[in-house]
C-alpha cells in the first residue's frame, strides 16, 4: 500500500480528500439542502457580481496581448536553446482536447440554433439573428475563455521553467509568499483548493458527456437508454483514460489528441462538401467580422437596463456568458497546469498567440459549418420543424439528428460518437495526469503511475456515483465547481500579476543587459 502512495504530498492529497468527502456526504445525505445552498450561492455570484467575470476575462485578454507584443514576448519558457518537445499540431491538439472537452460536439449545432431562434438582441429566426447567433456563440468559445487558460498556463509555465519551481498553482505566488514559504500552510491551501475544484469540474464533465454519448448510441441504434448504458460508457472511458494517462504525455495523451485533430479536419472537409457550403463560408466571414467589430462593447455587455431580460424572460447574460466563463474557469487549474507541462521551449509570444487564437479559429470554423448549415436549413425550410426543434432544444441529440439529414450518416454518426469519446478521454487522461502532479506537490517531473491510475479511476468512479445518485446530484456537483470558479478568478488574477512582476525583474536583470551588449556597434575599423 505504501508503494501506491509513494510520492504523494500527504497534506495536499489528504486535505483535498477531506474536503471532497464532506462535500460528497453532504450531497448524498441532504441532496435538497445541498442543491438549494449551492444554487443560491451560484445565483448570487452570477446575478449580483457577474460583472466581475466580464471584467476579469476582458482584462486578462488585453493584458496578454500587451505581454505578447511587448519586450517580454521573446523570452523563452526554458533555457535559451531549449526547443519545443512537441510539434505545433500535436501541441495544439493536446491543448484543444484538454480545454474543449466534448463541448464542441455537444453544442456545435445546438448553441448557434438556440441564439438564432431565441435571439436576445435581434428578432428571433430573422436573417440578422443568423449572424448574431454565431457571434454570440463566438463570445462563449472565443478569445475571452481561452484567455483564462492562457493566463493560467503562462503563469505556471514561467515559474516552472524560468524560476525552477514545481508545476503547482502555489508556485505562482512565490513573489508574494517567498520561496521558503511555498511548502507552508497558505501554499498548501491554494493547491488543495485547485485540486478539489479540478476534480469537481472533470467528474461533472465526464458525467454529462457520457450521458450525451449514451443518448446518441440509443438514438442511432435503438439501445435502451438509462443508467446501465451510461455506466458502461463511463467504465470504458475510465479504463482507456487511465491507461493513456499511465503511458504519459508522449505515448498516450499525444496520440489521442492527434486523433482528435484528424477527426476535426475530416468533419471540416465533410461539411464543406455536403453542407450548405456557400452559406457556411459567408456566415463564417460575416460572423467573425461582426465578432471583432463588436468585441469591445460585447466584452462588457451586462444588460444594465434589463431590456434583454424583458425580451426573452430571463437574465441572459448570467445564464449564458457568465455561466460559460465560470465553467471555463472551473477547468483553468488543470488545463493551465497541463498546458504548462507541454509548453517547454516555446517563446511567451508564441505561447500567448497560439493559445488565444489557434483554438479560437477552430471553434469559429466548427460552429459556423455545423451551426451555420442548421441555420440555413431553418431560413430556407429545407428540413421539418420537428427536426429544427431538436437541433435548437436538445443538445444531447442535436448532432446525431443533424448528421442524420446528411449523406453517409451511418458513417459520420459513428465517427462523431468516436470523437465524443476521444474528447472525453483527452480531458480525463490529461486531468488525471495533472491531478497526479498536483497531489504529489509536483516535486517530480512526472506523477507516479499509481497516482495517474488512482485519479483516472477516481474521476470515472465519481461521475458514476453522482449519476447513480440521481435527483440532481450531478447538477449540484457542476454548480459546486462553478461556485469555486468565482474565488479562483481572483487567484488567477494574482497568479498573472505575480508572473508579470517576476517577468519584469527577470527582463531587467537578464534579458535587457544581454540585448544591450549584443546591440553595441563595433568600433573596429
List the defining traits of the structure above.
0% strand; 525 residues
From the helix content, strand content and strand pairing, which structural class follows? mainly alpha
* Rg over CA atoms: 23 Å
Largest sheet: none
- Average of the residue pLDDT scores: 85
What coarse outline follows from CA principal-axis ratios? globular
User: Regions with pLDDT < 50 over 5+ consecutive residues?
Assistant: none
Written as H for each helix and E for each strand, in order along the chain, the element string is HHHHHHHHHHHHHHHHHHHHH
Strand content: under 5%
β-strand number:
0
* Cα distance spanning the termini: 74 Å
- Number of helical segments? 21
Q: How much helicity do the residues have?
A: over 70%
Description:
The protein is mainly α. The protein has 21 helices and no strands. Helix 11 crosses helix 19 (409-439). 78% of the residues lie in helices and 0% in strands. The termini are far apart.
Can you lay out the helices and strands and say which pair or pack?
Blueprint: H1 10-29, H2 31-47, H3 50-69, H4 88-100, H5 103-107, H6 110-117, H7 127-141, H8 143-161, H9 174-177, H10 185-221, H11 227-246, H12 248-274, H13 277-299, H14 307-312, H15 316-341, H16 348-380, H17 385-393, H18 398-404, H19 409-439, H20 449-469, H21 473-519
Helix pairs in contact: 1-2, 1-10, 2-21, 3-8, 3-15, 3-16, 4-12, 4-15, 4-19, 6-7, 6-16, 6-17, 7-8, 7-13, 7-16, 8-15, 8-16, 8-21, 10-11, 10-15, 10-19, 10-20, 10-21, 11-12, 11-19, 11-20, 12-16, 12-19, 13-16, 15-19, 15-21, 17-18, 18-19, 19-20
Amino acid at each position: 500500500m505504501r508503494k501506491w502512495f509513494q510520492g504523494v504530498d500527504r497534506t495536499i492529497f489528504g486535505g483535498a480528500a477531506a474536503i471532497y468527502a464532506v462535500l460528497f456526504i453532504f450531497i448524498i445525505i441532504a441532496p435538497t439542502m445541498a442543491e438549494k445552498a449551492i444554487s443560491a450561492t451560484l445565483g448570487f455570484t452570477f446575478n449580483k457580481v457577474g460583472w466581475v467575470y466580464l471584467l476579469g476575462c476582458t482584462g486578462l485578454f488585453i493584458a496578454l496581448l500587451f505581454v505578447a507584443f511587448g519586450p517580454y514576448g521573446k523570452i523563452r519558457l526554458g533555457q535559451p536553446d531549449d526547443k519545443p518537445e512537441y510539434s505545433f499540431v500535436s501541441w495544439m491538439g493536446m491543448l484543444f482536447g484538454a480545454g474543449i472537452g466534448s463541448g464542441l460536439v455537444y453544442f456545435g449545432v445546438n448553441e448557434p440554433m438556440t441564439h438564432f431562434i431565441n435571439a436576445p438582441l435581434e428578432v428571433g429566426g430573422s436573417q440578422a439573428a443568423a449572424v448574431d447567433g454565431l457571434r454570440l456563440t463566438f463570445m462563449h468559445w472565443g478569445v475571452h475563455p481561452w484567455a483564462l487558460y492562457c493566463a493560467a498556463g503562462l503563469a505556471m509555465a514561467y515559474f516552472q521553467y524560468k524560476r525552477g519551481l514545481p508545476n503547482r498553482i502555489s508556485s505562482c505566488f512565490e513573489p508574494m509568499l517567498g520561496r521558503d514559504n511555498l511548502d507552508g500552510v497558505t501554499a498548501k491551501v491554494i493547491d488543495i483548493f485547485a485540486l478539489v475544484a479540478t476534480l469537481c469540474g472533470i467528474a461533472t464533465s465526464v458525467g454529462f458527456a457520457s450521458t450525451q454519448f449514451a443518448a446518441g448510441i440509443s438514438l442511432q441504434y435503438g439501445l435502451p437508454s438509462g443508467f446501465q448504458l451510461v455506466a458502461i460508457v463511463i467504465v470504458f472511458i475510465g479504463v482507456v483514460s487511465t491507461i493513456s494517462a499511465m503511458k504519459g504525455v508522449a505515448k498516450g495523451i499525444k496520440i489521442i489528441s492527434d486523433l482528435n485533430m484528424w477527426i476535426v479536419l475530416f468533419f471540416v472537409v465533410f461539411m464543406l462538401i455536403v453542407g450548405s457550403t456557400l452559406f457556411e463560408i459567408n456566415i463564417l466571414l460575416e460572423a467573425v467580422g461582426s465578432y471583432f467589430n463588436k468585441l469591445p462593447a460585447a466584452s462588457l455587455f451586462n444588460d444594465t437596463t434589463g431590456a434583454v431580460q424583458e425580451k426573452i424572460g430571463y437574465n441572459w447574460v448570467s445564464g449564458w456568458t457568465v455561466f460559460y466563463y465560470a465553467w471555463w474557469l472551473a477547468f483553468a487549474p488543470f488545463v493551465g497546469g497541463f498546458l504548462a507541462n507541454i509548453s517547454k521551449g516555446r517563446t511567451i509570444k508564441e505561447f500567448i498567440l497560439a493559445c488565444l487564437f489557434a483554438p479560437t479559429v477552430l471553434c469559429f470554423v466548427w460552429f459556423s459549418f455545423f451551426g451555420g448549415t442548421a441555420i440555413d436549413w431553418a431560413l430556407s425550410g429545407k428540413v421539418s420543424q420537428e427536426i429544427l426543434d431538436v437541433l435548437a432544444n436538445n443538445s444531447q441529440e442535436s448532432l446525431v439528428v443533424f448528421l442524420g439529414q446528411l449523406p453517409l450518416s451511418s458513417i459520420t454518426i459513428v465517427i462523431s460518437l468516436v470523437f465524443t469519446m476521444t474528447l472525453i478521454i483527452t480531458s480525463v487522461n490529461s486531468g488525471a495526469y495533472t491531478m497526479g502532479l498536483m497531489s504529489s506537490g509536483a516535486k517530480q517531473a512526472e506523477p507516479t503511475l499509481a497516482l495517474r491510475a488512482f485519479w483516472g479511476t477516481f474521476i470515472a468512479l465519481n461521475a458514476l456515483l453522482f449519476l447513480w445518485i440521481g435527483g440532481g446530484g450531478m447538477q449540484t456537483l457542476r454548480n459546486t465547481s462553478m461556485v469555486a470558479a468565482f474565488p479562483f478568478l481572483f487567484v488567477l488574477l494574482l497568479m498573472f500579476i505575480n508572473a508579470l512582476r517576476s517577468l519584469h525583474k527577470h527582463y531587467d536583470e537578464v534579458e535587457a543587459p544581454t540585448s544591450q551588449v549584443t546591440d553595441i556597434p563595433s568600433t573596429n575599423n
